Amino acid sequence: MKVTKAELAHVAVKAEQYPKNQLPELALAGRSNVGKSSFINKMLNRKGLARTSGQPGKTQTLNFYEINERLYFVDVPGYGYAKVSKTERAAWGKMIETYLSEREELKAVLQLVDIRHRPSEDDQLMYNWMKHYGIPVILVATKADKIPKGKWQKQLTAIAKTLDKEASDPLLFFSSATGLGKDEAWRTILNHLKVTE
Predict the structure, then answer these.
(1) 3-class secondary-structure state, position 84
(2) Annotated binding site: which residue ranges?
(3) 92: phi > 0 → left, psi -120 to 50 → alpha, else beta; which?
(4) Which domains does the chain have, with CATH numbers?
(5) Annotated binding site for Mg(2+), which residues?
(6) Which of 5, 24, 28, 64 has the fewest other C-beta atoms within 10 Å?
(7) Is 8 helix (H, G, I), strand (E, B) or coil?
(8) Which residues line the annotated binding site for GTP?
(9) Of 112, 58, 110, which Cα lies nearest the Cα of 81?
(10) What is the rounded distance in angstroms from the CA atom of residue 80 to the CA atom of residue 89?
């Protein structure tokens, strides 16, 4: 998809701060430092729109990125990061759970996992939780440029097996560094939303 307009339109910690224009939303979930901000920047062709950080746990709000006035990417706080207080983690958890389980505009979750590693227990819990709530999932294996191309399929198979992935859930590889997988990711997203470019 050709992105002509992209902006951070809303920052929310509670439902009354969510956008009111009823555009379809795709949430991005993943462990801290899996590359959600880099994914957003590469997909939207906007360097620095989503702030990347070497410090895990940087995103602490629901960040709504409006794209071409047609849809939103919603960056949610990364999970699995221990260096925040239990109180903060509980607050994030409640905020994320409320959004994911109750938001009517949410059409799917892009769950990002690192292609170099088997999904963590947190990844598995998140995937199973979304399946429990009937939320469609598009799995994106990030950092594909970090391993040889010959190992991609083996790693994708391991990811699918570890998560006990449902056959209907797409599993894509992606590299924010090279743009690898970007077109396929957009095709999958638009197909899921049943909209054309």
Answers:
(1) coil
(2) 30-37, 57-61, 75-78, 142-145, 174-176
(3) alpha
(4) 6-193 (3.40.50.300)
(5) 37, 59
(6) 5
(7) strand
(8) 30-37, 57-61, 75-78, 142-145, 174-176
(9) 58
(10) 9
